[in-house]
């Protein structure tokens, strides 16, 4: 549970602590306040060992997240080392030799305040895995939690309705906008500076994912990718004797299993409604890699029950239901491990998940992926649920963001529209939640993985070409274990086209004959949730939130909105989350 909020104007002692803790309905973190002529700052406890705030006579240095240091060892991650990591970053910065894109790896946000000159410096990570938000109106404020910033800046009621609609339709808010009119998200991989004599931040970008194909050989890129993520894992796990990981029926968690040290005790966790095909494959994978398999069962209405708590945790503009681990962080004691490893981000960064393509989608997953060049995210939005002028303004915002991406990624702008910053990707709230609950590490967010994703042509990502070459040695223990989608991940796409076709046929027969029944995947059955009496009750309870979003809607009746075929089931979940947020705000 680690966030900061900084204000150039002094704020009464105790107020920031109260505001930070208000975003947590349960198990609120300890919060430390700092005050001076430079302004006020509050920082909640960083779960990652060694990254508590560091203060001396001249500076306060705050690190959010648990970046891996590449200029020294990371042994402090294995014990309660206080400020060891923060001070190491501060000292290297003071020496003037810090290379932010090379010396730190993984998600982070760093704030340094000069108590004597009142100069403030903020650094964001390569993709803004940990987003930072700014308010620069009546005062100047920064925070890693958008709702916290809105509360302190007294902007709770200054809602951006266009962003609300954006979130309902797309599950994200188009960068740099937020749910609040006066608050913006700042750029990734950028250093922001504020001196006392100025009223706005000056920025300097230290890295940009420019479209430069840096590799002549896919094999070389694959080797660099595998070695890069292996180094990231090794730097973390050095001297750790007991760690945790997430396991699934897929290939990403198997890759992580192959990266983790075999001489370390590893507990593998999966969260399911019940033991199904996903769980059975995951258990076999865990056994193959020598990990201790743990199934944690969730209730059928788990994703409805966590809506209030998770919405507060991830903040406005992030889909709450990606907080899969909420509640399990305590029941499975995830918060007691020095490191918990996941496989998030590989699909979007390394397998072309955000590339629009023919084939391989929906009904025929065995068909090879071919990029579509006729798709554009800037097409005029059409939806009978919302007013035409609202959709027109939203289209302009999305077009502006696409135009921005085209300036440095002309051939792959459609893909990177959803990647830069990563808040444009619907899956990232998984990290927003996990990093506030336990010490989570995502190897596919390591600097090497990010840079290679930006440096290779899209055709290498399609059909898992790059990923399969990079991870093949790591997948060998499960060479003959099928992925839940019917593939053998160890093998390349041209073999799996035939393998998956056979699996697809067999699955179709199994469902038609009744041999395969029930929910066989990792997600809950949303139809069960949305047809429940509890869903109806939530709809009624949160309906007062319609007052905010109402002007953008053609239909004002809540029940009819949820019955409408103009919104798909994910958009209806987003609508429910939106109604809840505005209901609570009232």
Automatic annotation (TrEMBL):
This is asparagine synthase (glutamine-hydrolyzing). Keywords: Amino-acid biosynthesis, Asparagine biosynthesis. It is an enzyme of class 6 (ligase). It comes from the Bacteria. Its EC number is 6.3.5.4. The keyword Amino-acid biosynthesis applies. Pathway: Amino-acid biosynthesis; L-asparagine biosynthesis; L-asparagine from L-aspartate (L-Gln route): step 1/1. Coiled coil: none annotated. It catalyses: L-aspartate + L-glutamine + ATP + H2O = L-asparagine + L-glutamate + AMP + diphosphate + H(+).
